[in-house]
């Protein structure tokens, strides 16, 4: 069923609520993460100190990170290069190409990788279609670009339906 492909494996408030030790215990060796409204606000050009610290904790745990973003090269490169983070831009999520490219680049398997993002129709759907463990986070900012605003309206409909069917165990923010 299509809606099952929209169900994240996990839902957390933010990247900072992800248990890195648990990832390690689950033999996770890599993270594929979205950028905009997952790591930082969509209009923030650089990482915050909190994000830098989170990335350092992943590195200390031996977990690689690749940013996979639908945004353009200039935006993603400006964010990732100072952090020496691998990235794939113009990813066309939820298609498979960028997700598969990321695991190849990190030399890991899908089973050793989690996908983190703030959108059901790009990050979660893309990750679930390939069998990744997916983690949905609350968007960092309450504002979005035009296409993301459209996606958010569709997400609200899907989440309301999932709640009514008892498929989700969390509450949406008003």
UniProtKB/TrEMBL annotation:
<dbReference type="GO" id="GO:0008962">
    <property type="term" value="F:phosphatidylglycerophosphatase activity"/>
</dbReference>
<dbReference type="InterPro" id="IPR010021">
    <property type="entry name" value="PGPP1/Gep4"/>
</dbReference>
<protein>
    <submittedName>
        <fullName>YqeG family HAD IIIA-type phosphatase</fullName>
    </submittedName>
</protein>
<dbReference type="InterPro" id="IPR006549">
    <property type="entry name" value="HAD-SF_hydro_IIIA"/>
</dbReference>
<dbReference type="InterPro" id="IPR023214">
    <property type="entry name" value="HAD_sf"/>
</dbReference>
<dbReference type="InterPro" id="IPR027706">
    <property type="entry name" value="PGP_Pase"/>
</dbReference>
<dbReference type="GO" id="GO:0005737">
    <property type="term" value="C:cytoplasm"/>
</dbReference>
<dbReference type="Pfam" id="PF09419">
    <property type="entry name" value="PGP_phosphatase"/>
</dbReference>
<dbReference type="Pfam" id="PF13242">
    <property type="entry name" value="Hydrolase_like"/>
</dbReference>
<dbReference type="InterPro" id="IPR036412">
    <property type="entry name" value="HAD-like_sf"/>
</dbReference>
